[in-house]
Amino acid sequence: MRQSLVVGNWKMNGTRASTAALAQSIITGLGANSAGCAVCVPYIFLASVGEIIKGSGLALGAQNVANQPSGAYTGEISASMLNEFGCQYVLVGHSERRSYYGDTNASVAERFCQAQTQNITPILCIGETLEQREQDQTFAVVNEQLDAVINLAGIDALNSAVLAYEPVWAIGTGKTASDEQAQEVHQHIRQYIAAKNQTIADKIQILYGGSAKPDNAKGLFAMPDIDGGLIGGASLDADSFLKIYHSI
Ligand code: PGA
């Protein structure tokens, strides 16, 4: 039985005060639910939010990590820095990084490996654009995104990783994949991994992301291969995020 996981991605939002208040409200509302819960916080607030959530059921995550361990990489943040600040998770390959900041399958695979060198669990984001879906390339696209990581890190690396299927056309658009559309791709991803290693396929958490909201989360989470969610917009409001979390 896989443990469920709900992760908030705050993206480039909030102030020191508002992120502190949001973290506090989430902790207060977590209750006795046994599902995992994490928030991926802007770098600059990792320290302050990390202090607030220390010892709580809420885990700390970052939204990106450098593809190099240290050195002359102006503006980058290394995995060891994230580790020092208590990050347990980091997003790698979010579609906004891929489309606006030039992340490639190759650099995403390097970031994934960097995170694991510091025992930080990478949440590998994969998913197709609308154009790719319309051309029936969805499975080919996610296979390629997965292969880039598996070829560099090895299949066993997926033992300590989380996957997030995020169709690009559903992110921040209000257009969620239907339960069946999401399940179809999640099932494909699990089968693709199973062909390489059945044990890992059975165990790995595959989250859905893309306009997940309190009113559609329950249906998505009820799908057999959907183990939780990566929540953007709705994670900025504690009530909405907690409703999603508790619908798992
Ligand atoms: P959204 O974002 O929930 O606002 O669509 C999801 C994500 O980008 O991770």
3D structure, described in words:
With 248 residues, the protein is of the alpha/beta class. It is built from eleven helices and eight strands. The protein has one domain (5-245): Aldolase class I (TIM Barrel, Alpha-Beta Barrel). Helices cover 43% and strands 15% of the residues. Strands 1-2-3-4-5-6-7-8 form an eight-stranded parallel β-barrel, surrounded by seven helices. α1 (16-29) packs parallel to α2 (46-53), α1 packs parallel to α11 and α5 packs across α7 (138-153). The two termini are 14 Å apart. 45% of the residues are buried. Bound molecules: 2-phosphoglycolic acid. The site of 2-phosphoglycolic acid has 13 residues, from β8. Residues 9, 166, 171-172, 209-212, 230-234 line the site of 2-phosphoglycolic acid.
Mean pLDDT: 97
According to DSSP, the number of beta strands is 8
Terminal residue distance: 14 Å
What about the largest sheet? 8 strands, parallel, barrel
- Report the bound ligands by name, code or SMILES: 2-phosphoglycolic acid
Q: Report Rg.
A: 17 Å
- Contiguous uncertain segments of 5+ residues: none
- The fold-level CATH name is TIM Barrel
What is the CATH architecture descriptor?
A: Alpha-Beta Barrel
Helices and strands, in order, run as: EHEHEHEHHEHHEHHEHEH
Helix fraction?
A: 40-55%
Helices and strands: which structural class? Answer: alpha/beta
CATH class: Alpha Beta
SS field, number of helical segments: 11
